[in-house]
Task: structure prediction
Amino acid sequence: MVSASAGSGKTTVLVERVIEKILHHQSIENLLIITFTKAAASEMKLRIKNAIKNKIKEQPDNLFLKQQLAKVDIANISTIDSFCLEVIRKFYYVINLDPNFSIMTDDTQLSLLKEKALLNTEKYFFENKDQEFIDFYNNFAGDREVEAARSMLLELYYVTLAQPNYEAFLKRLDFFYQIDINKNDIISSNLWQEKIKPLLLTNLQNIINKISQYIAEAEHNFNDLNKLIEQLNLFMKSLNYLLAGIEQNLNYDEIRSRFSNCKFVGRLRRSSNWDESSTNLYQEISEFKAKCQDQLKKLFASFFITDEKEQLELLAKAQKLVKTISKVELTFINEFGKLKRKNNIIDFNDMEQFAYKILTSNSNNSDLARSYYQNKFSEILVDEYQDVNELQEQIIQVIKEKGKNNLFMVGDVKQSIYGFRQAQPHLFLQKYHQFSNEVQSERIILSDNFRSSKNVTQIVNNIFDALLTENFGGINYQKERSPTIWCYILS
Result:
């Protein structure tokens, strides 16, 4: 894995790796190079061609290099969608797909087909007088705005189709709303333990860390700031008391009580005897206090607005609603799929889903397809790896073949921009941390920017030093951008 900041030459590194493979007599036909846009794929081909031409100038009699230059245009250098389409065209029979299918690229026609699928789905549930479905529509749409329910189903459609096993994904949707019937409390729920608790701990710890920093600054100040330090210590004490309750899994109402009592006691008062540095520190702490109080109010409003009894009732209703949504969503996906099959068309979401099914189905033909690509590609190179989604990651892993170290990834978690396509930067971060400790895997960090001026990089570094930490962003920006140490031997 290469974690490369903007302007550090990550694409150049990827191109150089391809050239090194070619120089060691690996054909470019046996490399799978994945980019995230067609423009990036075209640029990659051009840069590889130019690099090969430069090598030919150095080795004019090298026939293999000339052959590789001729093969660049037909090599597997493409977007993941284009590669998936190739898999489908070659192994369509694995999933019983008509080989004469066409790709639906007209957004208007596709929207009309989705609308028809939605109407058919609604008709099915209304005709069957499904009360859970009626409750769902009343909850989201009411008598006035049916589009609210439809929009939610369409948004969930894109999230669902980016999962390797979307049926299992939909069945798991209510996981966070499940309550242990033996305990029947909020604190033991999946929602609290896996989502709310970590969020609260992170937010509170960040506030405590900042207060500790201000106390240290105040203690080293030459002016008498004892009153200010005392107020900060009292506030930090109440925060630590709340934090301990959450960490110890005390009952919900006790934590709620501690949260409501967690306040900054007293008013900050400025002394006329303070110098400029003390006055500036006072002003900074005053602004921080206001932000803290606002943040704590929002957290309380989000998670502690009612007592445990009412929260449990809301959680039970939410679980029932989510299960209904999952059922309706699956019906819509199947109905939409039927309409597309009837018209012998596929869309971009189908490409990745169909390719994954072809490569992972439990059949001899699927084994054949999987073996074909595992044997064909000696290495898989992925550009902009921070933008892969769960389904794309699984497709890459299936082609890679378990046990082989033939995956080369280049990316930068700070440049993840495909959230609207369900990109999952945490996949990059998992490997980023994992590869720092593994013997068989290697992590390379490129932190020097060769594109921007020094003034630009300094401003950006100052901003991200404060923003990107292990807790926020999953990466220590300051540590990653540590300056390169150069060694010069002087004669």
